[in-house]
Specification:
This protein is α/β, with parallel strands linked by helices. It contains six helices and five strands, in the order αβαβαβαβαβα. It has a five-stranded parallel beta sheet with strand order 2-1-3-4-5, sandwiched between helices. Helix 2 runs parallel beside helix 6 and helix 3 crosses helix 4. The longest helix is centred in the first third of the chain and has 13 residues. The chain is globular, with a radius of gyration of 17 Å.
């Protein structure tokens, strides 16, 4: 390893990022997260679009309500792991994109998803994602349109 902090001194995230920046790895560039396994069919369209474009990605299921610490850790460590964009799909209250955005400075693209409990065909999720407070930006694509989220992620990366 190159010169880092003195022995016994705490290692910072910046130190770790500098060490890893010199390594060539095949880390995913886009993280795709969803609140429930039932969202997988809709969100797989984003993964397929990214794969068709040759963009490495990872897919994870994590709930902003049931696993808030998991979501926070994922978002906080995303940049250090090589991610450059996060696509987050959620229905109903659709908290996942906003929670992810609250814990990272990476671009977050929200995908509002419908479910059998959705109001007005997913309008509840769309409004929850689009109405983020100042300082917590989330891009929002159309309801159930994970493919457009992937296209937007590809444009951000280019």
């Amino acid at each position: 390893m190159s010169e880092m902090a003195e022995p016994g001194a705490p290692v910072t995230e910046t130190d770790v990022e500098e060490e890893f920046s010199e390594l060539e790895v095949d880390a995913p560039l886009v993280g795709i997260v969803m609140g429930s396994k039932s969202d997988m069919d809709a969100m797989q369209k984003a993964a397929k679009e990214l794969e068709d474009r040759g963009i490495r990605n990872e897919v994870r299921v994590m709930s902003a309500h049931r696993d808030p610490d998991v979501v926070a850790d994922y978002a906080k460590n995303a940049r250090m792991r090589g991610l450059r964009v996060i696509i987050a799909g959620a229905g109903l209250a659709a908290a996942l994109p906003g929670v992810v955005a609250a814990h990272t400075d990476l671009p977050v693209i929200g995908v509002p998803l419908t479910s059998k409990s959705s109001v007005a065909g997913g309008l509840d999720a769309l409004l929850a994602i689009a109405q983020m407070p100042p300082g917590v930006p989330v891009a929002c694509v159309g309801v159930d349109n994970a493919r457009n989220a992937a296209v937007l992620a590809a444009r951000i990366l280019s």
